[in-house]
Amino acid sequence: MTEWDVKKLRILRTLRDRGTVTATAEALLMTPSAVSQQLTNLAKQLGVDLLEAQGRRVRLTDAAHLVLRHAEAVFAQLERAEAELTGYLRGEAGEVRVAAFSTAVPALVVPVVRLLRAEDRPGPDVRVREAEAAQAYELLTAGEVDLALSLAAHAPTARDPRFSLFPLLADPLDVALPAGHALADAPGLRLADLAADRWIFGGSGPWSEITTAACEAAGFVPEQAHSAAGWTAILALVEAGMGVALVPRMASREQRREGVVMRVLEADRPRRHVVAAVRHGAESGPAVARVLAALTETARSFS
């Protein structure tokens, strides 16, 4: 019977995800020669070629991809087994490490912690790490966090066998105007009404993409007058009359300024979608399941 070595299979999966032996070695805290040796041994154990040369790099063979398709089911079952064992040993009061983007920490994670603490039974110990999507999913893959919160646009696809995804909410995008703006009190305000205004958003990254996409859907390209990524800075610039900005409601709830008028865009209804992700199979663990349930309940307040 063919011998399946889980440790070596994880190395092969990391090579698929990282692309090179060097990057795989760095991710797993191994030497490149050790990575190569482990994969050579795995190929001998399975009786198939797993790698083939492609210039100075290597690529996975069709056989390697076939092996990984089945290995993902093994990894998911091991996650379920570990979750059940943890639940058996600790009950539901285990530790859940959460990686979340900046606005999700005060808007979602902190209320979840408060909700769990208010329950009559002991709750999981939630450990928080602020991280944007790329880093959050690297941490999740590496087993350094148990749950990742990100925007759906930057999450893996639902077909990715490594993760289970849970849609949480559609966060409305409101427009922030200076208090003295001519349209601050205008009825039925639409994004297109602000096409001639100067806009404030980051020079790159998710928020730049979201702002640009929302405005283009409304029929115009926003003129970027100022570049800022943090909501404190963006709203300070708006309050000073230096431009207008789209602001997610999750952020505007935490950032209040007297000189800024927040207007709901009922006609356009721009949204950004937030999801939670865990390693496939880990959602059956009692502690992770309780955190997911609390996240779902907290997310309802944004409907």
UniProtKB/TrEMBL annotation:
<keyword id="KW-0805">Transcription regulation</keyword>
<dbReference type="Pfam" id="PF03466">
    <property type="entry name" value="LysR_substrate"/>
</dbReference>
<dbReference type="InterPro" id="IPR005119">
    <property type="entry name" value="LysR_subst-bd"/>
</dbReference>
<feature type="domain" description="HTH lysR-type">
    <location>
        <begin position="4"/>
        <end position="61"/>
    </location>
</feature>
<protein>
    <submittedName>
        <fullName>LysR substrate-binding domain-containing protein</fullName>
    </submittedName>
</protein>
<dbReference type="InterPro" id="IPR000847">
    <property type="entry name" value="LysR_HTH_N"/>
</dbReference>
<dbReference type="Pfam" id="PF00126">
    <property type="entry name" value="HTH_1"/>
</dbReference>
<keyword id="KW-0238">DNA-binding</keyword>
<keyword id="KW-0804">Transcription</keyword>
<dbReference type="InterPro" id="IPR036388">
    <property type="entry name" value="WH-like_DNA-bd_sf"/>
</dbReference>
<dbReference type="InterPro" id="IPR036390">
    <property type="entry name" value="WH_DNA-bd_sf"/>
</dbReference>
<comment type="similarity">
    <text>Belongs to the LysR transcriptional regulatory family.</text>
</comment>
